[in-house]
């Protein structure tokens, strides 16, 4: 008898580069949701370099993803373990530096995705690997909340934008793969690195509409419905948030897509200390700046309380940044 399809909310957290605090925030996000009474499952989807379990205060487990892809377990549910301290929270562990799982074959990625629908949880948190491998992209694109995390450093902002661009074109290519001529136009646009061409997707859309009006309308709907999300981590100065929001402005200008801004998390000594102690920072000190930031983000933008206020703030911030770039006469990215 097949397992029942559950339809949990999938939250995938990615980053264009390592070192932005993705795993640390993923751990506290999962713990924060469980503290609010939600059933949470956390999956360390960085198969080749797993370390989520350490941040969660767990040294090792009798079962890992390696067991799911070999012997003796056949269901993803079977490798989940209960967290010893946090109620409502289960997790599946990776296997550290595993060459066997670092670059999953297509059928293995699809097996993983199929089994997500059979997990009994309110939220499934996917802590993805850094970069833009096929593993990362395919898991990111099936999420209800596809979150890109950056910090205010220039390289992190650039890598964050490049991740959004690659995710957009990968999903676009898969959506229109059966139409050969449109597929060729998509490939051409995805590989266009001309610095002065800042409206690459707008130009693509015009070409597709000229080729096939129906396909053009379908692509327009696709663009309007593609909304990756953004979290800015390690914000220290007041201007750091505005620097990070340049990713959203660039995505709108160059890719014609509207990202959703979930919020920022302050740079906080409690976070650094929690990593040393292997305790999620939201649990170690729920009153610290970073914990309050994440708590607000969860309530307003994950659980959808105060949603309208958040949207209005996002629109105001983005308009302010767009105006600044116009006044400076410089490029966003």
Strand content is 5-15%
CATH 2nd-level architecture: 3-Layer(aba) Sandwich
Number of domains: 1
Number of helices: 15
Based on CA inertia axes, which overall geometry fits? globular
CATH topology: Rossmann fold
Output the CATH class name: Alpha Beta
Q: Element order, helices and strands?
A: EHEHHEEHEHEHHHHEHHEHHHH
List segments where confidence is low: pLDDT < 50 over at least 5 consecutive residues.
none
How would a textbook summarize the main sheet? 8 strands, mixed
Structural summary, described in words:
- The protein has 333 residues and is α/β, with parallel strands linked by helices.
- 49% of the residues lie in helices and 13% in strands.
- The radius of gyration is 20 Å and the shape is globular.
Tags for this model:
single chain, about 325 residues, alpha/beta, Rossmann fold, 8-stranded mixed β-sheet, 8 strands, globular
Structure summary:
With 333 residues, the chain is an alpha/beta fold. It is built from 15 helices and 8 strands. The protein has a single domain (9-156, 228-328), classed as Rossmann fold (3-Layer(aba) Sandwich), CATH 3.40.50.
Topology readout:
Layout: E1 9-14, H1 22-35, E2 40-45, H2 52-55, H3 65-68, E3 81-82, E4 89-92, H4 106-116, E5 123-128, H5 134-141, E6 145-150, H6 154-175, H7 180-190, H8 200-211, H9 213-224, E7 229-235, H10 238-244, H11 246-255, E8 260-266, H12 269-277, H13 281-284, H14 289-302, H15 307-328
Parallel strand pairs: 1-5, 1-6, 2-4, 2-5, 6-7, 7-8
Antiparallel strand pairs: 3-4
């Amino acid at each position: 008898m097949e397992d029942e399809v559950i339809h949990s909310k999938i939250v995938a957290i990615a980053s264009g580069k390592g070192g932005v605090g993705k795993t640390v925030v993923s751990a506290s996000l999962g713990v924060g949701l469980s503290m609010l009474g939600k059933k949470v499952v956390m999956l360390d989807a960085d198969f080749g370099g797993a370390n989520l379990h350490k941040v969660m205060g767990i040294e090792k487990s009798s079962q890992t993803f390696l067991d799911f892809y070999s012997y003796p377990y056949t269901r993803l549910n079977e490798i989940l373990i209960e967290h010893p301290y946090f109620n409502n929270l289960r997790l599946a562990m990776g296997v550290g530096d595993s060459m066997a799982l670092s670059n999953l074959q297509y059928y293995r990625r699809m097996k993983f995705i199929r089994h997500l629908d059979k997990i009994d949880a309110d939220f499934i948190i996917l802590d993805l690997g850094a970069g833009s491998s096929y593993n990362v992209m395919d898991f990111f694109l099936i999420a209800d909340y596809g979150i890109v995390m950056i910090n205010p450093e220039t390289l992190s902002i650039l890598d964050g934008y490049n991740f959004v661009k690659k995710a957009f074109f990968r999903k676009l290519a898969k959506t229109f793969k059966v139409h050969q001529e449109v597929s060729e136009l998509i490939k051409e646009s995805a590989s266009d690195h001309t610095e002065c061409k800042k409206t690459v997707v707008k130009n693509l859309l015009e070409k597709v509409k000229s080729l096939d009006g129906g396909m053009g309308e379908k692509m327009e709907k696709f663009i309007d419905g593609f909304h990756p999300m953004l979290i800015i981590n390690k914000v220290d100065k007041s201007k750091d948030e505005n620097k990070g929001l340049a990713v959203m402005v660039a995505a709108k200008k160059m890719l014609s897509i509207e990202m959703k801004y979930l919020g920022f998390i302050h740079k906080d000594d409690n976070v650094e200390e929690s990593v040393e102690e292997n305790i999620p920072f939201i649990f170690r000190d729920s009153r610290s700046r970073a914990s309050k930031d994440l708590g607000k983000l969860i309530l307003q933008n994950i659980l959808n309380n105060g949603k309208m206020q958040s949207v209005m703030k996002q629109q105001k911030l983005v308009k302010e940044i767009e105006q600044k770039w116009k006044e400076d006469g410089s490029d966003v990215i």
